[in-house]
Write a structure and sequence with these properties.
Strands 3-2-1-4-5-6-10-8 form an 8-stranded mixed beta sheet, with helices on both faces. The chain has a two-stranded parallel ribbon with strand order 7-9. It has helices spanning about 10-20, 75-85, 125-140, 185-195; strands spanning about 1-5, 25-30, 40-45, 60-65, 95, 145-150, 155, 165, 180, 200-205. It has a single domain (about 1-209), classed as Rossmann fold. The longest helix is centred in the middle third of the chain and has 15 residues, at about 125-140. It is built from 4 helices and 10 strands. Helix 1 (about 10-20) packs across helix 4 (about 185-195). Helix 2 links the parallel strand 4 and strand 5. The two termini are about 25 Å apart. The chain is an alpha/beta fold and about 210 residues long. It comes from Pseudolactococcus piscium. This is NADH-flavin reductase. GO terms for molecular function: oxidoreductase activity, acting on the CH-NH group of donors, NAD or NADP as acceptor.
Length: about 210
């Protein structure tokens, strides 16, 4: 398979790139600065500069870009709209490294994780902006998008166990009663999802077993 990883130098992007290379995929690292990954090809561009020709021919494009500063949070919406426009009408799948705050707490889909009392107040603006990005994708029937939320505790320093489970829109916990996954296991799960190619126009989630 041929994939492109946007923000391949980032914490999540670099692990996804490594997993894809290890699985024998042809990987293009989309970076703004010097490539620090083992990807076989490199494209130096900002996400907003990407064109249809840049992303033509890929089986999947992974959006691992993060926006953290208050003035940049709106880019969770605008960047996904841009990527959707670029990939509109193609067979290329768009996999988005999403957030956990928009996972639903009940079957009626009226209450999200970010609405719960225990959700950290400091993370609510980020969670809200990422949820708006997901809402942008939900309006698109012309793109094969897959929004992949991690568990509530998304551990950058956690070990790779090789064990994870795929869930849906609802907030779930593992056998230990925890909503947890390491970056490494998330990267493994996302690359496995790309390889299977069975998901499209939906949000799913990954958590440890």
């Amino acid at each position: 398979m041929k994939i492109a990883v946007i923000a391949a130098n980032g914490k999540t992007g670099s692990l996804i790139t490594q997993e894809a290379v290890d699985k024998g995929m042809s990987v293009t690292a989309v970076v703004r600065n010097e490539n620090k990954t083992l990807a076989q090809a490199v494209l130096k561009k900002d996400i907003f500069e990407l064109t249809a020709s840049d992303l033509a021919g890929f089986d999947a494009v992974v959006d691992a870009v993060g926006f953290w500063y208050p003035e940049d949070l709106v880019k969770h919406e605008t960047s996904l709209k841009h990527l959707a426009d670029v990939l509109s009408g193609t067979e290329t799948a768009l996999f988005v490294v999403g957030g956990a705050g928009s996972l639903y707490m009940d079957e009626t889909h009226t209450r999200q994780l970010q609405d719960t009392l225990d959700f950290p107040e400091a993370y609510k603006p980020l969670a809200t902006s990422m949820a708006k990005g997901l809402a942008v994708l939900r309006q698109r029937q012309d793109v094969r998008w897959v929004y992949v939320s991690p568990a509530a505790l998304f551990d950058a320093e956690g070990k790779k166990t090789g064990d994870y489970q795929v869930a849906g829109e609802l907030f779930e916990t593992n056998q230990a009663g925890e909503s947890y996954i390491s970056y490494a296991d998330y990267a493994l799960g996302l690359v496995d999802l790309i390889a299977k190619g069975t998901y499209g126009r939906e949000r799913i989630s990954l958590l440890s077993k």
